[in-house]
Amino acid sequence: MSTVSVIIPAYNQGNYLGACVKSVLDQTYRDFEIIIVDDGSTDNTCEVATQFSNPRVRYIYQDNRGLSGARNTGIRNATGTYITYLDSDDLFLPQKLEILIEKLESEPDLGFVAGQAVLIDENGQKIGDIFDAPPPSDPVDLLLGNPLHVGSVLLRREWQERAGFFDETLRSYEDWDLWLRLALAGCKMGWVDRPVSLYRFHRAQMTRHGNQMTAATFAVLDKIYSDSDLPEAWRALKDRAYSSAHLRAAPQAYREGFFEQGKIHMDAAVRLDPDLKANQAEALAKRISGWADYAKIDRPLNYLENVYAHLPESLAELQKRRRAELGQKALQVAFRSYAQGNLPATRSAIWQGIRYNPGILADRGLLSIFARSLIAQE
């Protein structure tokens, strides 16, 4: 028996699997087993998985059952006191197990602990974004969204058994569903403010995953709110929970060009949570500005223009902020582009910003980088 069972579901990602397994074998904490569950792959997953002669690496093949089904097979075959998950295209940082085990063993009342995840691209280059939101202090607030990366958690086996398996009817957000069930069961969740894993983002899968994740978001909430024994505090948050779900679905729709769907989600969000329109929708404007900074967005200013051009009538307050918000975003893009040495993008963002809001010219720092970018152009 090992102290930690690392469960790696694998489906047609043999090109990433070797590095994934190696990132576990390179852990500073050594008492672990690796269970690779090949979920009916048709590529070289089997060859990659079986090349490891280390006795701590076990390989299991099954007909395709989906991500949850593969993880569940891993759970059934795990022997560890602790369980953790690692998708086959992601990586553990070397001290992941050591850091999270130390936290659990120093605080015996914790059933679950999470750390940060750093976003990387298809080539393993860091994108810059970090999943750094801890579990909420009040478990009911987990209803407002999933702040955690599944590869950055560690849980006690007893709590896994109490909460049950991953829901195999869900095609996404099966991890969020499990965290909610753990919270409902009374599992206390801890946090370590350090990166412990690398989360790979695949730009080519955005549209499919976007639609899938939107459907799964509402499926998870529908499942929770179908429970007749749900605590009153959880029931009281229902409208805000669904409003938050619509606000996660809207940026997906806008990004993919489904503007009418985006409008529908935005309208539903403010209908369920009218407080979003308070102070001339200031908080909502800030949130929308953040959407443009997602790693999934190639052209943040164009994206933000599309959002403001396709708002529902119920958000007239937000529409009044359009020019100021676009000008502010242009200023942010200009400074970021300048820091990256991209002077053409710097000039373009500044020109766009002036068009939106000439008042940004009062920013002396902006004038300085604008002048330098123009001089460099000559």
Quick recap:
The chain is an alpha/beta fold.
What can you see in these coordinates?
The protein has 378 residues and is an alpha/beta fold. Among the domains are: 4-202, Spore Coat Polysaccharide Biosynthesis Protein SpsA, Chain A; 329-378. The protein contains 16 helices and nine strands. Strands 1, 2, 3, 4, 5, 6, 7, 8 and 9 form a nine-stranded mixed sheet that branches. α2 (45-50) links the parallel β2 and β3 (57-62). α7 packs antiparallel against α9, α14 runs antiparallel to α15 and α15 (343-356) packs across α16 (364-377). The longest helix is centred in the middle third of the chain and has 20 residues, at 206-225. The N and C termini lie far apart (68 Å). The mean pLDDT is 93.
Secondary structure elements and pairings:
Layout: E1 4-10, H1 14-25, E2 32-39, H2 45-50, E3 57-62, H3 66-77, E4 82-85, E5 91-92, H4 96-106, E6 112-120, E7 126-131, E8 153-156, H5 157-163, H6 174-184, E9 189-200, H7 206-225, H8 232-236, H9 238-255, H10 259-272, H11 278-291, H12 300-309, H13 316-319, H14 322-339, H15 343-356, H16 364-377
Parallel strand pairs: 1-2, 1-4, 2-3, 6-9
Antiparallel strand pairs: 4-8, 5-9, 6-7, 6-8
Helix pairs in contact: 7-9, 9-10, 12-14, 14-15, 15-16
